Amino acid sequence: MPRIATPSSIADAPATTQPMLRAVEKQLGVVPNLFRMVANSPAALEGYLGMSGALAKGRLPAPTRERIALAVAEINGCSYCLSAHTYLGKNLAKLGDAEMIANRHGGSTDPKAAAAVRFAAKVAHARGHVGDEDLSAVRMAGYDDGEIIEIVQHVALNTWTNYINEVAGTEIDFPVVAARDAA
């Protein structure tokens, strides 16, 4: 049961967030519960959309971004985000089931992507306190400093969505996938 109210429609959301929610609807075809719930704070919604939009223009490909989202959602035990990113991974990034299972375990069947996902998982587990060997491993896989920064930002953004959904008790509006460690 949700612990923070989710406006039932765009019209029920604060007026200042309605144009942002319409933009989400135009892009995705729907407005997932996460966006409508975050719309309770116009500043938070603007910040989330701004960071998401900026990172979408980054150099990490969409499949790698989804892989990172799956790993971080599993680490943080967020079934909402795991459900959303399993759906997006399958339908938009075209990731297969075996790949998404590997992602949930902090890896990938793709060698280069595996390095990014392992690094992202290390950042999430260690709360940013990674070692020189962790940076060396992701660099050896072909990621430069700009891409490493993007990986860290994806971890941070996904951690934020994980936390906000867990605090809010956001109702899952995707096919449900439960996190292994979900309470």
Automatic annotation (TrEMBL):
InterPro entries: AhpD-like, AhpD_core, CMD-like, Uncharacterised_peroxidase-rel. Residues 42-119 form the Carboxymuconolactone decarboxylase-like domain. GO terms for molecular function: peroxiredoxin activity. Gene3D superfamilies: AhpD-like (1.20.1290.10). Keywords: Oxidoreductase, Peroxidase. NCBIfam families: ahpD_dom, peroxid_rel. This is Peroxidase-related enzyme. It comes from Mesorhizobium neociceri. The lineage of its organism: Bacteria, Pseudomonadati, Pseudomonadota, Alphaproteobacteria, Hyphomicrobiales.
